[in-house]
Write a structure and sequence with these properties.
Radius of gyration: 13 Å
Structural class: mainly alpha
Shape: elongated
Helix content: 55-70%
Number of helices: 2
Strand content: under 5%
Distance between the termini: 36 Å
Number of domains: 1
Order of helices and strands: HH
Length: 61
């Protein structure tokens, strides 16, 4: 599967979502529902994107 930023997370099926979380090294409870996994993955991607933006600004200064 491609990197998370290249896919629409909300359309992933349960197994695909679990695989993407594992690819991102994100641990979730196997009993967590689909919506919870989507929120977790979106949060981690947003956090990663934010840190990349901050990194770009610190390299400029």
């Amino acid at each position: 599967m491609s990197h998370s930023s290249n896919i629409n997370i909300k359309w992933l099926k349960g197994k695909q979502l679990q695989e993407e979380l594992e690819n991102q090294k994100i641990i979730v409870d196997k009993r967590e529902n689909h919506a919870g996994m989507i929120r977790t993955l979106e949060y981690e991607i947003a956090k990663e994107t934010q840190s990349k933006k901050i990194g770009r600004f610190t390299n400029v200064i």
